[in-house]
Amino acid sequence: MNELPIPPAGPAGACDAPRSAPAGELRAAARAAWAIAEPRAKAAAASAIGEAVAAGAAGALRPDPCAAFDDATRPGRPGAPRLVHPRDVPQRGVGSDEGRAALLHAIAHIEFNAIDLALDAVWRFGGLPEAWYLDWAGVAAEEALHFGLLADELRRRGHAYGDFDAHDGLWAMALRTRGDALARVALVPRLMEARGLDVTPQIQARLASAGDEAGRAILQRILDDEVGHVAIGNRWYAWLCAREGVDPLGGWDALASRHGASSPRPPFNRDARLRAGFTEAELARWA
Ligand SMILES: [Fe+2]
Ligand SMILES: [Fe+2]
User: Model's pTM, two decimal places?
Assistant: First the structure.
């Protein structure tokens, strides 16, 4: 994660003259990785972007907040998994090898979407401080790592990403919030990724009860990193609320209802949520 301080929130609309991305521009690289359909290739491209960003000036990938892009809505996707309605995704218990593989596949699908969500935050939203782009580029690289860990584990178990049906709920929220960076951070990292903080320990306990230590350990690595992703979401939520004059508490409810999202439901992973920057007032409001 980069340590670049974010500037005080100023007025929106810093880019009066949108332009094409120059060579070696970070957001164009993110847009290209987002468009890759083959999962391992997309993950590799996201990792390479993260490495370039972590290398700083030596990495030679700088963001241009005023670079303009089309309003593409569908990232590159492989032919499988088949995307079905959430109620049609088969639910299997963890008592069988097949059930545990299906569970890890469902999480791999979330991580694959998370690569696209982080890349989307990099390329889609113009006029933001440099730290915004570097933060989400770093997140994209960690999501690529998570996807790779799960795809490798599925392969060890005789499966591959694409073997089980999946649903498109995460991307639906990305589409609904594609015109508004504040709504994006309110409802993707602060709602959907934060939900992951709550449910991951429960999934880990189910895997552990089935003797699946490898699966449990991968989820621990993911949980540790996801606290950081939610923290980045919280940091930018506060910054964007200040810029736009939105009350962080009441404004969240308005954004959620505008975009058809419901409030977080307890039980919460309080420790992880507090480490990720949620306040006691927020948790009490949703309890
Ligand atoms: Fe992740
Ligand atoms: Fe994440």
Answer: 0.95
